[in-house]
Amino acid sequence: MPEDKSAQLEALRGEAASCRACPLWRNATQTVFGEGPADADIIFVGEQPGDREDQAGHPFAGPAGLMFDKALAEAGVDRRRAYVTNAVKHFKFEPRGKLRLHKKPNASEINVCKRWLLAEIDILRPRLLVALGATAAQSLAGRAVPIGRNRGAVIEVANAPRVFITVHPSSLLRLPEAVDRHAAYASFVADLRKVGEIAAALPRGAAA
What we know:
By secondary structure, the chain is α/β, with parallel strands linked by helices. The protein has a single domain (2-201), classed as Uracil-DNA Glycosylase, subunit E, CATH 3.40.470. The chain is 44% helix and 14% strand. It contains eight helices and seven strands. Helix 1 (2-16) packs antiparallel against helix 4 (107-124), helix 3 crosses helix 8 and helix 4 (107-124) packs across helix 5 (134-141).
């Protein structure tokens, strides 16, 4: 029942808040756990919280998250039916003056944090998982998954049989030219539209 799942998620969130399994907790403000309904149809998995997420304590709360919400709406995917989380729950960064610049998690950090992601999946048992970018895909698959070659495909892995592969919305923000960003955004919306169609055709628990 959703109520039971909600309680399980809250208990897991409380446990993750005190995680000290890797060094990332030392500099991060807090653990940023996943959020969404306990009966979510889709789990979207990103890489890690960014600067704003680390401060706010919520996933996908920064510029990439705003773009993600806009793209979901345009794709016709109900954001209220989605659960969003990250492969790594602490912000990894490099200080640069007053700024904290994103730094990619390494394989060890991804593997250590995977227990939380797998627990979220086990509780929610959604219709479909979506890997947003290479780190999320690596976490779910347990190996490197080239995004260019697998984008738009559904791959099967041991812990999550159905995983849709696409880019992370932050990659769109890094494109230098407006025309490139426009085309990349349109492709991302098309991917999310496909996600909605695939999820609608699957039974609950298909991704668990």
